[in-house]
From TrEMBL:
Membrane-topology annotation of the record: Multi-pass membrane protein
Sequence similarity: Belongs to the G-protein coupled receptor 1 family.
Organism of origin: Nothocercus julius
Subcellular location: Cell membrane
Protein known as: Olfactory receptor
Gene3D superfamilies according to UniProt: Rhodopsin 7-helix transmembrane proteins
Signal peptide: none
GO CC, any one term: plasma membrane
Key words of the record: Cell membrane, G-protein coupled receptor, Membrane, Olfaction, Receptor, Sensory transduction, Transducer, Transmembrane, Transmembrane helix
Annotated gene: Or14a16_2
Superkingdom of the organism of origin: Eukaryota
């Protein structure tokens, strides 16, 4: 992620909307992986499982903020690819510098507001079932298990609202890619089709992995919950996407490899 950020900032050939959004994605990935993994590694090395109350609240806020912003940004990136492939003659107008900055700012702002709501609501709920969170970071579903009042239903309601908005974004991404694939299949040259698919498919893989694992983690029924399963699912949505994003976006990208 650090290499991608450096390459995009330093190489003027990468000062385009696609790489601007990739820069933002790398910043979000860098932040999200730094929120969970270093603390877990430190606890493992020092043979402890402690985290302060304020540290736990900070983790919850940053995780919701960064992952919420990341999914909004992935939606914007799908729109960018749609305009580039399906409406290339309007690309310069629709994806102007000002429009790109506004879309990126909206993605960050949506994650921030979402994090404020979830963190404030979660830590206003009285907790009386001990203070042991069965996860390698402070995860909201695990904190809600410690609740002893019905006020946790407010947080469940927030989750359902978020699930609807995420579903709407996911449908938008899928419809965008249906239009993209339809346009790509009409490209006469095999090389042109290959280039378009190689740009779009990695993005679709990242989105599918991120959405499916996060939905399962937060909306799965309690009857199938177990510490081992919760841990695996949390790693799949909290650790794997930020780790593989830079690899997926850079491995087959000649412009980025040349810049590096």
């Amino acid at each position: 992620n650090g290499l991608i950020i450096t390459a995009v900032v330093c190489d003027h050939r990468l000062h385009t909307p696609m790489y601007f959004f990739l820069l933002n994605l790398s910043l979000l990935d860098l932040g999200s992986i730094s929120t969970t993994v270093p603390k877990a590694m430190a606890n493992s090395l020092w043979d402890t499982r402690d985290i302060s109350y304020s540290g736990c609240a900070a983790q919850v806020f940053l995780i919701v903020f960064l992952f919420g912003g990341e999914f909004s940004l992935l939606t914007v990136m799908a729109y960018d690819r749609y305009v580039a492939i399906c409406r290339p003659l309007h690309y310069g107008i629709l994806m102007s510098s000002r429009a790109c900055v506004k879309m990126a700012a909206a993605a960050w702002a949506s994650g921030f507001l979402n994090a404020l709501l979830h963190t404030g609501n979660t830590f206003s709920i009285p907790l009386c079932q001990g203070n042991e969170v069965e996860q390698f970071f402070c995860e909201i579903p695990q904190i809600l298990k410690l609740s002893c009042s019905d006020s946790y239903l407010r947080e469940v309601g927030l989750f359902l609202v978020n699930a609807c908005s995420v579903s709407g974004c996911f449908i938008f991404i899928v419809v965008s890619y249906m239009q993209i694939f339809r346009a790509v299949l009409r490209i006469p040259s095999k090389q042109g089709r290959h280039k378009a698919f190689s740009t779009c498919l990695p993005h679709l893989v990242v989105v599918s992995l991120f959405v499916s694992t996060a939905f399962f983690a937060y909306l799965k029924p309690p009857s199938i919950s177990s510490p081992a399963l919760d841990l695996v699912v949390a790693v799949l949505y909290a650790v794997v996407p930020p780790t593989v994003n830079p690899l997926i976006y850079s491995m087959r990208n000649k412009e980025l490899k040349n810049a590096l």
